[in-house]
Fold this protein.
Amino acid sequence: LAKTTQPISMDSYEGQEVNITCSHNNIATNDYITWYQQFPSQGPRFIIQGYKTKVTNEVASLFIPADRKSSTLSLPRVSLSDTAVYYCLVGDGVSGGYNKLIFGAGTRLAVHP
Amino acid sequence: NAGVTQTPKFRVLKTGQSMTLLCAQDMNHEYMYWYRQDPGMGLRLIHYSVGEGTTAKGEVPDGYNVSRLKKQNFLLGLESAAPSQTSVYFCASSYRDRYEQYFGPGTRLTVT
């Protein structure tokens, strides 16, 4: 199973850009990279998913280098409401009979005024 | 669209009691999942289903059973609750694999 490594916590200030890097050295050819956000007392919420290069949506950007051994979630101009836990997941879903989407401990992002 | 709903929101059980958690989704999703989340930790997959009438074990299935008799519902059962099963339980659904999972609000279970 592909294992991910993320920083345990990060601090930022309102208006800054935040980059959270995830390491996944043993990513498999069919694996996708997915990021989720979780607020206290809520279920996780999907942010973005990618396979290679760069993906951008209205919330964030995801940068994936050519070797795909890491990925970086970029949150532009964060606000206090972006304070949450961010999870990086690597897997190809349930193919092969087992769901490889493993949630690690995530990165706790604290945004300060 | 209500999305994914979970019943109940809170529950306190005594060791040895049984209970069933209900998850319902109105998005016509094929895949459904049950996770548990312990304090300060990520989510761990208990069981999942890739379609009506099918179930499969996840990362931590021991002590739990599931059923998917209807496409929109996924039930999680605890036959004999133990204090180690005190946790927050999340249900999720997705259209297929690789698609984003939609999560319910969670059920906070305490076993004394």
The interface with chain B takes residues 32, 34, 41-46, 49, 87, 92-95, 97-99, 101-106 of chain A (CB under 8 Å). The beta strands of chain A are 9-13, 18-23, 32-38, 45-50, 53-56, 61-64, 70-75, 84-91, 107-112. The mean pLDDT of chain A is 89. Chain A has no helices and nine strands.
